[in-house]
Design goal:
Helix content: 55-70%
Number of helices: 8
Distance between the termini: 57 Å
Shape: elongated
Structural class: mainly alpha
């Protein structure tokens, strides 16, 4: 495989790793790799052993496991923080990958794990992102609506 294709695939995979909580499509990732979506799909599967969609789901579930294990966020909050818009899709995907429901996973770690980080700290320090539909992921969040910074 030519080096430029490998570089493009790696760039798209890195983009998926950084932006897993965003609604990424095959077209988005193929555009980052600068190849057609069908060629991208075929090459990604050959190089990484799974489809881009399966890779993205795995990445989201891994992040969800971290949040369920270490925070006091609800399963629904974790679902949205990792990029799912449907609790049902999140639960079925999580269960298919881990063999355990998100609620059971969280309960097991709540019982056996270390003390959990309060959700307010998680969102305040950007450990999970809460985005409203249509918001710009690169824009700063205002402290107070319409408020200006005073010194």
């Amino acid at each position: 495989m030519p080096d430029d294709l490998r570089v493009g695939l790696r760039r798209a995979k890195d983009h998926a790793d950084r932006n897993f909580a965003e609604p990424l499509t095959l077209e988005d990732l193929a555009a980052v790799a600068t190849i057609s979506k069908y060629h991208f799909l075929r090459l990604f599967r050959v190089v990484y052993g799974r489809t881009p969609s399966a890779y993205l789901s795995q990445r989201r579930v891994e992040r969800a496991q971290d949040l369920l294990r270490t925070t006091n966020l609800t399963v629904t909050e974790v679902c949205h923080a990792v990029g799912y818009s449907s609790l049902g899709s999140f639960s079925s995907g999580f269960t298919a990958i881990t063999g355990e429901t998100p609620s059971a996973f969280q309960a097991r770690w709540a019982r056996d794990g270390a003390p959990r980080i309060p959700g307010c700290y998680v969102f305040m320090w950007g450990l999970a992102e809460r985005r409203s539909p249509g918001s710009d992921p690169n824009s700063a969040i205002e402290e107070k609506p319409g408020g200006a910074v005073h010194s």
